[in-house]
UniProtKB/TrEMBL annotation:
It holds the Pfam family SBD_N. Coiled coil: none annotated. It comes from the Bacteria. Residues 7-141 form the Four-carbon acid sugar kinase N-terminal domain. It comes from Salmonella enterica subsp. enterica serovar Wandsworth str. A4-580. This is Four-carbon acid sugar kinase N-terminal domain-containing protein. InterPro entries: 4-carb_acid_sugar_kinase_N, 4-carb_acid_sugar_kinase_N_sf.
């Protein structure tokens, strides 16, 4: 995840869209980018230890996405680790965070199915959170939105 002004961008988008929650799922498993224990990994290597870390234009200050976002946002940042995504109950966790007020939630994903679970949990919220991510999350979302109006088998 490039340093840029990610936290400020998420905060501005939340304010503009009047969303209480933002869910960040930065993984693109098909491209080797995953998130585990809050860290962005490229082919299993923490982002800070890759060649991307020394980019002079957008240097990497941490592999931990929540840390990068928190540096640039006054909104509380939370992490949901992979075991919590996979055991179920992500929807309930998001609902609980929303009840606390504004929040930015960074969610682990290692496989495409993890992104599908994240999209499903987001779509189950009474108020859809702002979804922040990449192609991995974008690819999972249409399936979930399509299934919303249909009976699940």
């Amino acid at each position: 995840m490039r340093h840029r002004q990610r936290g400020a961008e998420v905060t501005a988008a939340m304010r503009a869209s009047q969303r209480k929650l933002a869910v960040i799922a930065a993984a693109i498993p098909a491209a080797g980018r995953t998130t585990l224990e809050g860290k962005c990994l490229v082919n299993g290597v923490p982002l800070l230890e890759t060649e991307f870390a020394s980019d002079p234009k957008t240097p990497i200050v941490s592999s931990r996405i929540a840390e990068i976002v928190a540096l640039q946002s006054e909104i509380p940042v939370y992490e949901v680790f992979l075991q919590d995504v996979r055991r179920g109950g992500l929807s309930a966790l998001l609902t609980a965070y929303a009840a606390e007020g504004e929040g930015i939630i960074v969610v682990d994903a290692v496989e495409e199915r993890d992104l599908t679970l994240i999209a499903q949990a987001a779509c189950e919220q009474p108020s859809m959170p702002l979804l922040v991510g990449a192609a991995g999350l974008a690819n999972a979302l249409p399936v979930e939105l399509f299934m919303q109006d249909r009976q699940r088998l």
